[in-house]
Amino acid sequence: MMFIGTIFINIIIPILILIVIGAGLQRKFAFNLRAISNLITYCLMPAAVFINLYKTEIDVQVLFEIVGYLFAFSLSLIVVTAIISKLLKLDKGESAIFKNSISLINSGNYGIPVSQLLFQANPLGISIQIIVMVFQNVLTYTYGLYNLISATKTGLEILRSLLKMPIIHAMILGSLLNWLQVPIPNFIWSPISHLADAFLAIALVLLGAQLAQIQLRTIINRTILVSSIGRLMIGPAVSLLLIYLFGLDGVVAQSLFIASSFPTSRNSSTLALEYDVYPDLAAQTVLFSTVLSAITVTFVVYLSAVLFV
Predict the structure, then answer these.
(1) Confidence of residue 217 (pLDDT cuts 50, 70, 90)
(2) pTM here?
(3) Which residues 6+ apart lie within 8 Å of 13 measured at CB?
(4) Which CATH number fits domain 3-307: 1.10.1270.20, 1.25.40.10, 3.60.20.10, 1.20.1530.20?
(5) Distance between CA 12 and CA 10 in Å, rounded?
(6) Helix 45-55 and helix 123-139: axis angle, to 10°?
(7) Which residues have CB under 8 Å from 52's CB, separation 6+?
């Protein structure tokens, strides 16, 4: 259990600092949150996804070993969240936020630093987390985006909205150029890289600005509690079952088990604000699950070391 202090100091506190800065700035200056959300969705986020997909070097053997697991894990969570949302009798918008809060994982700014901390002596663990992050990017801007758009639109409007999203174009272009090994000139790479570097900080500052408009006493409600339990407890439980079913072990099993325990993706909050689908609920869920994860992630890390030596 020695990891709890290190994880909290090196992962949770930096995230919370940026959130607090955003909340403080919002209270003082009252930013136009819609404009900031547009900046992230149509500029910074596509740049970050393009960079990640273009730069990632995926080990083919590891990729084939875990890709089946990732599909099974995501599909299991999608089914579980659909059932629970019906039992909770959530409306269409709440259901979209609830499903995304459990299915979409913060594998980037949370998952990568945790993996770097835990697998310093074994690069395979970090490589697996990068694969998980890429998969989560695809899931976020397909299934996650569909959930939010379908909450306000129907039929062909959903498909048109998806195809208009620059994040979809960035995913396709980044993957294609990576596969073809096309070099990118520095005068093009440099501005894209600067935009990608700005994404994390501005996204978390925006989350803080959203939270500044929320009354803290409303953060504890049924939907947030159940979604946080789903993301931080049901997620790892499903992962553990699938790891045994797939016969995975060693570092691969450890990495995937730990990756399943991370809190709700901050992108779920950013997209909820962009499409105006319960943005406060989405922001509250991200905050609550991130803070609570200081305890749950530590336990999963400890358990992974015991189960998968």
Answers:
(1) low
(2) 0.80
(3) none
(4) 1.20.1530.20
(5) 6
(6) 140
(7) 108, 130, 133, 134, 137, 174, 196
